[in-house]
Amino acid sequence: MNDYIATNRSLWNGWAQLHAGSSFYDVDGFKAGRLSLMSVELEELGDVAGQTLLHLQCHFGQDTLSWARKGAQVTGADLSNEAIALARSLSRELDIPAEFICANIYDLPQILERQFDIVYTSYGVLCWLPDLRRWAEIIAGYLKPGGTFYMVEFHPLMGMLDDETGERLAYPYFCGPEPMCYETEGSYAVATDHTHTAYEWSHGLGEVVTSLIDAGLTIQFLHEFPYSVYNDRPFLEESEPGQYVWLGRPGLVPLMYSVRATKPAR
Ligand SMILES: C[S@@+](CC[C@H](N)C(=O)[O-])C[C@H]1O[C@@H](n2cnc3c(N)ncnc32)[C@H](O)[C@@H]1O
Question: C or N: which end of the chain has fewer Cβ atoms within 10 Å?
């Protein structure tokens, strides 16, 4: 694990503890039976009952366990040992069968060798990864022939907008091997004076899709959305329940995208 990933692991260990007690993640509601999944992934991935599902970058496991509540046999993997400890304790407490593995995604193939019907990842994952070509190869390696990969992610165009107003292009669309470095204060889910260094890489749509194609997957769709399902910027407003658009400028830029791809059957 290089220094960038080690620093991000320390950041996510702190955030996992903050998030477990946050209203954003509403763990009490989850324990009472709430699904943490959004309608986008529920509709676009569809029926998962009876299927094996690997959730990459699962954080503390609410989405993974939600897929289990929908009938999947789930495995979640994440860099943060604190997040994985929380995920395991939620699984035990709620008696939802799940396997959780702590690993840097690039090391996961050394630890986990099975193949799955579905590989899933969502919302705020790619910016933590330096190498999408290797990421896509790992996904392809984990899919059974005929298996499905599904991801839903914040759009890289949204990632370029300044955090306060969205009026300026503040961050690059393209990124080389060296990450952007910044100091966090609190997190996207919790406002506190907790500070930490973070390293992120931006990845354009072409890089994402071409990495998946080069890894041997067949793209079924690439959807772009004019709304976000998270109200995590001051310049967003709710247009319909659970859909947040740019205040006064709905539809100007895409805010999320999703990709579904399959691994060819032998
Ligand atoms: C924004 S969260 C995923 C969000 C998820 N949709 C949720 O809200 O529960 C990003 C996750 O990526 C994980 N992560 C970051 N870098 C990673 C890496 N190199 N390998 C594996 N997981 C990583 C973090 O620990 C964190 O849990």
Answer: C
